[in-house]
Amino acid sequence: TQSATGYLEFPSEIYIKPTSQPSAANRSIIADSSSDSLFHVPTFLSYFSSRLPLVRDESNGRREEIIGVSSSLLNNKVAFDAFADLNIMTAKYEIALRCYLLVGHLFSDEKLEEIERKAIYYVNKGEYERVECNGDNNSNNNSYGFVIAMIEQHHLHGLLLDKDFLQVEGAYPLVSLIRLLGLEVVADFLVEHCVPPPIRTVYGGSAASASSSVKSAESDSSRVTTEGDETLPITRVAEQIRSSPQLLHWYLHLIFKRRSEMYVQFPTTAVPPMAVTELHRSHLDLYLEYAAEDRDSAQSLSKTELYNQERKTTPLLLFLKAALPLGGIQPTEVRRLLEAKRVESLEDITEFPKSFAIELAYVIENYGDNSEEESFQVLDLYLKGAKSVMLAVTYAQRNTEHGSVLWEAIIQYCLTAGESNEIEGEEGKIDGTLFGSLLEVGALCGADLARLVSSIPQGMNIEGLRPRLVAAVADYRMKLKMHEASADTCRIDRICLLREAGHRSRRGMRQIRPFTNFPISTLNQSEESPKLSENFEKSQRRPVERPSRYRISVRLPMR
Fold it and tell me: Which of 158, 224, 315, 537 is the most exposed place for a label (fewest CB within 10 A)?
C-alpha cells in the first residue's frame, strides 16, 4: 500500500555530492504503509512487469509471458521509470537499479560514440567539453541524480561490478551508468569509491580449500553488499569497461590524476601490485592511440611561451615520468613503441618525424647510456622534431659530459638554417631569426653570450640585436646582484648562528656523580652489618677536594 503523504515526498532532481547523509534517500519514506492508501502497489507491479520483458521476475526466476500487449508498449522509458519507482516503494532496490541502468542503456540522450569522444577530450585537455544547448539534455541527466545516492545508501556497489546484472547482451552496468548520468557525475563517484586491487593470500591449507575460498568470495555477486563492500576495485572497474577503450583510457587517466596513491604512488609498499603494472601497459597503448594534438610535439609547443617551454608537459609525458620508475613498463619497450609510432605517422620519408619527440627524448635522456651518439639523438629530437631551441639549450646545459660538442651542434644548426633562408631582395644577407632566438634563449639560461656573439657570421641580419644584448646584460647584472645579496645574507645569518651556538655551549649544568654503587633501601644500619653502615656514612660525606672527573658539564641543546 501507499500513503499520500509519503508519495508526495520526492527527491531533488539536481544531484548534489553527498557529504554525510544523502539527501535523495527520502525515497525510503515511500516504503512505509498506512491505512489511507491510494493504490495497491503489487497490482501496479504486475501490470508494469508485463510490459517489461527485459526485467527478470525475481520471484520465480523466469520472464513473464507477454499476452495481448502491443510491441510499441514494451520496454518503453515510461514503463521503466514507473516500475523502478514502484520497486523503490517496496524496498526492492536491486530491481529499481536495474531499471534505471536499462534506461541509460536504451534511452540515453547521447550516443556512446559521443560520450567516448568527450572522454578523450577530457584526457587531452584536462577539462570536460561544454556544449551549448537548450537545457533538455541536462535536465534529463540531472533527473536521475538520485541514483548515486540510492547506490551509496543501500550499498549496491557490488551490483555495478557484475557484468551480467542487466541480463542484456552488450549492456554493462558501469557503461550504462555513465550514459545515464554523464561523465562528470560518474567520475566523482568512481574516484570516491576506488580502492586498490584485492590481494588474496593463502597462508595454509590445501589447494582445494584455497580454490573454494576464492569461489565463495566471487560467487553471488548480485547480492546486496555490506558496509565493508562499498568499494569499486580499480581492476574490476577496468575489466568491465574494457569493451570501450576510450572510456577505459578516461577512467585510468582519472585515477592517475586524482588517486595517484593507488596507481603510481604507493606509500605502503615498494613493489607495486602486479595487477596495477598490467594496467600500466594497457594505459601506455591507450595514450599512444589517443594522443590527438599532443602527438605532434612541434604543434603542441607552438602555442607555448618561450620561457615556459621547458615546463610544458603532455599527458603521456606525465604518465611516463610516474610509471617508468615502478618497473611495470620497461624503457626499452617504451622506446620501441614510440619509434614505431613516429614512423607510422610519417608521410614523407625524407622528413624528420615530429610526433612524440618530447616523450622519446625524455626516455633516451633518463634511461639511456648517455653516450655521445644518444646525446646528439636527443638534440635532434628537440631541434628538428619539437622545433624548440629552448629545450635544446637547456639540454646542453644539463649534459655536462657532452655539453661543449652539443653547443657547437646547436650553433651550427642555427647558422645552417639561417644560410638556407636568405632575405628576399637582398643578396648575401642571411636570415638571423633563429640565431636571434638562440641569443635570447642563451640569455635566459645563463649561457656564454660572448661565445655566441663571436659566432655571428658576416652578413647575418639579426633583427633587434642591440636591444637583445642590452637586455641580456641587464638581466645578467640583476642576477649577479641577487646572488651577491643572498650570499651576504647567508654570511650574516651564519655568524649570528655561530655566536648563539658558542654562547649556549658555555652554559652548563653542574652534576655530582654519586659514590655509592648500591641502593639506599638495601642499607641496614643494624648490629649485624656495622661495616656496611660505616661505608654508607662515609659515602654521604662531601669530600674536601673533589676530583675533576666527577664534575660533568653538559651542553644544552640549541633551540
Answer: 537
